[in-house]
Design goal:
The structure is a single chain. This protein has one domain. The protein has about 130 residues and is mostly helical. The chain has helices spanning about 1-40, 45-55, 55-75, 80-85, 85-100, 110-125. The chain has six helices and no strands. Keywords: Cell membrane, Membrane, Transmembrane, Transmembrane helix.
C-alpha cells in the first residue's frame, strides 16, 4: 500500500510540475515577445529574427520542452482521464502569473471564466 501511495504522490507531483512548467513557459514567452516586439526591425523577417533571438522566448520554449517530457512520462503511467483534468490548473496558474508578474487585471468575469474552464476540464474527465 505504501509503495502505491508513494508512486501516486510521485506521479501527482510530476503532473503538477508539468502543468506549472507550462504556465511558466507562457509567462516567459509573453515577456520575451513583448521585449522582442519592442525592438523589432522592419518587416516580418526582422520581427521573426528578434523573436528567435530573445532569451526569454528560448527559456519559454525550453520550459515547454521539459514540461512535455514530464507529461509524456506521466501519460505512460496513469490513465489520460486521470491526468488531463490537471491541465485545467494551467489556466488558473497562467492567469495568476499574468496578474502577479505582468500586472494584468483580474476582473470578476476573467476569474469566473477561468474557473469555469478548469471546472469543465474536471467534469468532462470524470464523465468518461
Amino acid at each position: 500500500m505504501t509503495g502505491i501511495l508513494l508512486m501516486t504522490l510521485r506521479l501527482f507531483l510530476l503532473i503538477l510540475a508539468s502543468v506549472s512548467l507550462s504556465a511558466l513557459a507562457q509567462l516567459a514567452l509573453k515577456i520575451g515577445t513583448t521585449a522582442a516586439i519592442g525592438t523589432r526591425s522592419a518587416g516580418i523577417g526582422g520581427e521573426m529574427g528578434s523573436l528567435a533571438q530573445s532569451p526569454m522566448i528560448i527559456v519559454g520554449l525550453g520550459l515547454y520542452g521539459v514540461g512535455a517530457l514530464l507529461w509524456l512520462f506521466v501519460l505512460g503511467r496513469v490513465p489520460l482521464s486521470f491526468a488531463y483534468p490537471f491541465v485545467g490548473m494551467g489556466f488558473i496558474l497562467t492567469m495568476l502569473a499574468g496578474a502577479f508578474w505582468l500586472n494584468e487585471s483580474l476582473s470578476f468575469a476573467r476569474i469566473a471564466g477561468t474557473l469555469l474552464i478548469a471546472t469543465g476540464c474536471v467534469l468532462v474527465a470524470r464523465s468518461a
